[in-house]
Amino acid sequence: MSDDILDPVAPYLSSREHLLDEIAILRARTAALIGGPQASPEDTFAAPDPVTVERRVMLSVAAGIDLRLPRLEYTFALSAVERGVLLCTLASEVDPLFRSVCRGLQGELAGPTLQVGTIIELITRQLEQAVDAALLFLPDGKLRASALVTVEDPLSPRDVPLQALRVKIDRNVGLYLLGARDSSAPEWLKLVRPQPVLGKARLPAERKADLTAYMHTAMERRAQLTLELSGPPGVGRKFLAEGLCHELGRPMLVANCQAVSGPLERDNLGARLAEVRRETALSGALPYLDNYDQLLTRQDPLRARDDEQSQQVAPTPMLIFTPELKRFLETAGVAFVGAIERYEPLEQAGEVVRIALTFPSPRQRAAIWEQVYEDLSAKLGEDVDLVEIGRKLALDAQRIQAAARASVSAAALRTRMEGPLVVTRADVMEASKNQLQHDLKSLAVRVDKAYRWEDLVISVDGYHSLLEMISYAANAEQVYDKWGFGNKHTVAQGISALFSGPPGTGKTMCASVIARELDMELFRVDLSRVVSKWIGETEKNLARVFDEAQRSNAVVLFDEADSLFAKRTEVKSSVDRYANLEVNFLLQRMETFNGITILTTNFEDTIDTAFKRRLTFRIRFEKPDADARAALWAKMFPEGAELAADVSFEELGRRYEVSGGNIRNAAIRSAFLAASEGHAIDMNTLVRATLREAREMGVLIAEERGGAPVEPVDELKPDAANGDGDGDEAPLPPGGPSSRPPKLVPITHRR
To answer: pLDDT (tens digit, 9 = 90+) per residue, 288-343?
Structure first.
């Protein structure tokens, strides 16, 4: 061994080395107390001289060596008795000999955990010291209030003597003292070393300067101050707190309150907040309670149990300020709390400064995109329009940064690190889609965007209306922002359209084409998940649909919209009043929605007239003629389909007046028939498939006799055009039976 190791007054090199000596001294004192055998000279854990240990600790501190136990003593101003309690509980965790000795003192029935009486017997000699030591284990004692030790108070019986309570050192604190962990913080707490990011926070520069000065003054006066940062997820609440902490020269301790919001954790809320208090003291950090509203108690009023009483307003849960959280904020000094919405009773805990952060506007999102790519030193391709992307993709700053980094990585992978790295629009859009997080799937169904322009057979007016809808979305930034129409007229900047017409005329198909052209997702609202028997719940679900759609860059499709957007009726009973409530809510929500909404209906006359005024576009889908049906037949077969030479789409369109949805089903049916019979799809197979489809839909079509086609009865003819026919009878087109519907033409490409 070297001379340094043999030198008894050399400084300790680690906390573990120091703790082993302290535990050895405690073991020797315990053995002497019970009259047990003293440690032999060969014992590795023979007790060192306490005076020598104290001198070595002083040398270590002078040398700048971080010893964990002295650090805890200094941080929490522990007395000699409190220090002894900490050592006893730690020794019982790691020293089997010490634990066996203590078990002999308190009896086998007491279990392996130390009792308060045993600890007091080991560390005190006088009655006054014993009484003072017993008071240390009360809930407001320093050791428990700082989460250094935990006291297991049994639920039953409640009259357990104080001396019989069981005491354990906090597991994280014990590992921290032994040097097994760099920090005593549990997993739900994270220490952040703040970066100089305050300049990038979305808050006026003057406001940021005032906040910094005010917080600095509060810290100097050791005053209580709570900063409540409210706003939607991802708007930069934590980012702003980090920038303020950097300006104040303090680290930030982030507490994920959602991780401790369960029923079991809620019973130990005081202990969890004590852990936050301990870590802020050890690190000198300012606490940030993220989603602190999860720590509030929710009191739900009882609902009616009888189904007959379902026609009542759904009760709203009440948030109650917990005494543990109130006590924490009162003693925490300067602290941050973050939540989606502001909580008024927060002022019960003292002075509160409220900062509301809004979701970034399209122009702000474009600026964030530009700043992030500038920080990444990335070159953008000519097809990348950050203004368009900022308006189209409702991403917060955090997800914009993640998407930008992912797009740069995708560009590097595509170029294989050869040549100049250029980020294309495809890279940005693909990376952004992975960052779009929404909850629309719980209320709506994703619609496949398989259809293209060339699949459509619609009227010329309808085609130009669809192009105009796309133009609205593409030029919204220029019209509303650059030209100032958004400030001049206080109207919603979204797009709403009503697709009306008989069933199967391609309304859903056109919605799919629009979503594909705009590179947006298409979701069809599922009424079974939205409509609720509880009054008020339907409106809440609809509000979620609009909120999620606006945030997720999705087109919302209300199929069979007449079920929700029906005309309001005269109020003659409470049922009528609550039925009109949903329509009134939708009217108000449509006024403020900035996304794209498409309504489809077979009965336009049943839609409330107030909705029609709020609609941007109204497109009527009509029945096709023979030429349109022939075009539909031709579009139903892919290039790889084996068609016989005798197939005549013009003949099929002339002979059978079936809808576009029926034509699609008949085409697929004929393919399966031909495959099972082992030949190409011929005219005979198509006729058989069409007749079977017509019979199943309840449409009577007589087969040709003598070469002349027999037309189906007018009253039983299905409606036509592309899409998904459902077999319902549609109203006559405007103008009565004598009016001629517009000519339908096939779309070969976007013009």
So the answer is: 999 888 888 766 554 444 444 444 444 445 667 788 888 999 888 999 999 988 88
- For 122-180, what is each residue's pLDDT tens digit? 888 888 888 888 888 888 888 988 999 988 866 555 667 788 888 899 999 999 998 88
Provide the 10 A C-beta neighbour count for residue 168: 16
DSSP state of 98: H
Q: 727-739 burial string, b = 16+ CB within 10 Å, else e?
A: eeebeebeeeeee
Per-residue model confidence (pLDDT) at position 525: 85
Q: What is the pTM of this model?
A: 0.67
| CATH value of 189-302+310-356 in 3.40.50.300, 3.30.43.10, 3.30.360.10, 3.40.470.10 | 3.40.50.300
**Buried b / exposed e along 51-74 (16+ C-beta atoms within 10 A):** eebeebbeebbeeeeebbbbebbe
Please write the tens of the pLDDT for every residue from 553-589. 788 888 877 777 766 666 666 555 666 677 777 777 8
Task: Tell me the two tokens of residue 636.
Answer: 């139903």
- The total of other beta-carbon atoms located within 10 Å of residue 721's CB is 30
Token pair 């073991």 is found at 27
CB-count burial class (<10 Å; 0-12, 13-18, 19+) for 135: exposed
Q: Which residues of 448-462 are buried (b: 16+ CB within 10 A; e: fewer)?
A: ebebebebbbbbeeb
Model confidence at 225, pLDDT cuts 50, 70, 90, reads very high
User: Out of 1.10.8.60, 1.10.600.10, 1.10.10.10, 1.10.3720.10, which CATH number does the structure's domain 626-718 have?
Assistant: 1.10.8.60
CATH of 362-437, one of 1.10.8.60, 1.20.1300.10, 3.30.70.260, 3.40.630.30: 1.10.8.60
φ, ψ for residue 495 (rounded to 5)? -125, 130
- Measured distance CA(351)–CA(337) in Å, rounded: 13
Per-residue burial over 309-339, b = 16 or more CB atoms within 10 Å of its CB, e = otherwise: eeeeebeeeeeebbebbebbbeebbbbbbbb
Secondary structure (DSSP) of 697-732: TT---PPPBTTBPPPPPGGGPPP-SSS----PPPPP
**Whether 431 contacts 395, CB under 8 Å:** no
